[in-house]
Amino acid sequence: MEWDSELFRVTRNLVHSTAARLDMDPNAAHRLLQPDRALIVSVPVRRDDGTVETYTGYRVQHNDTRGPFKGGLRFHPDVDLGEVTALATLMTFKCAVVGVPLGGAKGGIACDPSQFSRAELQRLTRRFTTEIINFIGPDVDIPAPDMGTNPQVMAWIMDTYSQMKGHACNGVVTGKPIELGGSQGRLQATGRGLVYCVVAAAKHLKIDLSQCTASIQGYGNVGHWAGRELERNGVKILALSDVTGAVYNADGLDLKETRKYVLKHGGIKGYPKAEAIDPNDVLTLETDIVVPAAIGGVIDAEVAKNLKCRILAEGANGPVTTEGNEVLLKRQDEIFVIPDILANAGGVTVSYFEWVQGTQNFFWGAKEVNDKLRAIMQKAFKDILQTHVNENMDMRTASMAVGMRKVTDTMKLRGLFP
Predict the structure, then answer these.
(1) pLDDT at 124
(2) pLDDT per residue as tens digits for the range 209-263
(3) Nearest one of 89, 72, 78, 61 to 113, comparing CA atoms
(4) Angle of helix 221-232 relative to helix 189-205, nearest 10 degrees?
(5) How far apart are CA 8 and CA 13, in angstroms?
(6) Continuous segment of H or E residues that includes residue 10
(7) Which ranges of 99-239 would DSSP assign to H, the alpha helix?
(8) What is the pLDDT of residues 184-198, one digit of tens each?
(9) Residue 142 has what pLDDT?
(10) pLDDT at res. 56
(11) Which tens digits make up the pLDDT trace of 71-115?
(12) Are the CB atoms for 88 and 72 separated by under 8 Å?
């Protein structure tokens, strides 16, 4: 019960149902529900006015059977132990699905980063780093950006860790600025990887993407780059939403222009070349492709009943509730689901590339990174699609089955210590 939350309950139910479908050893299944380590820290921060406020930080390390822990850090008011544990669990299977030799972790601070000055955010980040410093490292646990964090935050973590160790340690985080050993293509990787899966799904479904439309809920980093990649494949983007509002244009939106507007005005609300719509309607618009790329739990049973898309590509972590998934199971013939542990795995894949490049001090060009990402995402999609077809599983269960089998097989080979 320590990590009970809605997202953890959804994840737990998914692990249970997949384990039952695979007739998995109950000891192994139970082990996959328990993280190796869960750390809670206090993070005191001196605000610019001289007051000191204390925030709660988390780092959960789920399973390192296949390699060092890997997972993002999110700064968001709703961060709690249950959410972080669920995301760390999903990250373990996500790494296994795409075949990278890493385990799952996740972390964050329960705070609203928009309410901090740059100096306050730097102090928050650096103090949090010192609190978890004995639990992270290039061969132990490698954090990365997530909701509310970015390359600058990763640079502060890298610098703090390096100062404490007495020498530069570029490999302690991924998602860093290029100048500090970051990888080409990392910023775009999650959105780009999602679209590689959409392209593969369209081929499987015999859909011409150049005749398709899409709507994107969550116009942040993932949503923007997914949209840009969809545009390059001929898809017309009809609707976008973020925390400020939502817009719609039946003739299609130009994402280069919307990006400039958002950077200038702080959100999509008021974009002059589109009409304002209810943000709740973005998911249920009549478009061929829907991309939920914001927070988890947005597709409940009611929303799932009203989806009108052919492809649901999950850019966010855990966007579908347990009840929503039950509805989607009944609508498998109508809606092809690309589940989150596959759809958004491009981020961790290129983070793995960055880690490898940093370890070798030998860096790749953007084309090499993108070609390797495409090959990995297409192979993962193919493996899951084969499981989906050959074993008569829905796509979400098939994704979990591929990941859980790889992890449990490795656990059995390594054995139980002592």
Answers:
(1) 98
(2) 999 999 999 999 999 999 999 999 999 999 999 999 999 999 999 999 999 999 9
(3) 78
(4) 40
(5) 8
(6) helix 6-22
(7) 118-132, 151-165, 189-205, 221-232
(8) 999 999 999 999 999
(9) 97
(10) 97
(11) 999 999 999 999 999 999 999 999 999 999 999 999 999 999 999
(12) no
Cβ 246 vs Cβ 239: under 8 Å:
yes
Q: What whole-number distance in Å separates Cα of residue 316 and Cα of residue 135?
A: 27
| 6-173: CATH topology | Rossmann fold (3.40.50)
Distance CA 259, CA 322 (A): 33
β-strand pairing of 336-338 with 311-313: parallel
pLDDT in tens, 317-330: 999 999 999 999 99
- Location of structure tokens 């959100």: 267
Residue of 70, 106, 176, 406 marked active site = 106
Question: How crowded is the C-beta side of 164, counted as CA atoms within 13 Å?
Answer: 17
Q: What is the DSSP secondary-structure string of 391-414? A: TT--HHHHHHHHHHHHHHHHHHHH
| Residues 109 and 57: beta-carbon distance below 8 Å | yes
Average pLDDT over residues 129-154: 96
From 391, 364, 365, 395, select the one nearest 380 (Cα to Cα).
395
- Domain extent listing, the chain: 6-173, 189-338
What is the gyration radius of the CA atoms in the chain, in angstroms? Answer: 20
pLDDT 10s digits, 331-349:
999 999 999 999 999 999 9
The amino acid occupying position 334 is E
Q: Is cis: bond before 418, omega within 30 of 0? A: yes
Please confirm, yes or no, whether 330 is among the known catalytic residues: no
The encoded tokens of residue 2 equal 């320590």
Strand, coil or helix: what is 111? coil
Question: Exposed/middle/buried for 129, CB within 10 Å: 0-12, 13-18, 19+?
Answer: buried
Cβ-Cβ contacts under 8 Å for 167 (sequence gap 6 or more): none
Gap between the Cα atoms of 120 and 49, Å rounded? 10
> Is the per-residue pLDDT at 1 higher than 70?
no
Domains 6-173 and 189-338 in one fold: yes
Residue 341's φ and ψ, nearest 5 degrees, are -70, -10
CATH 3.40.50.720 fits 189-338, yes or no: yes
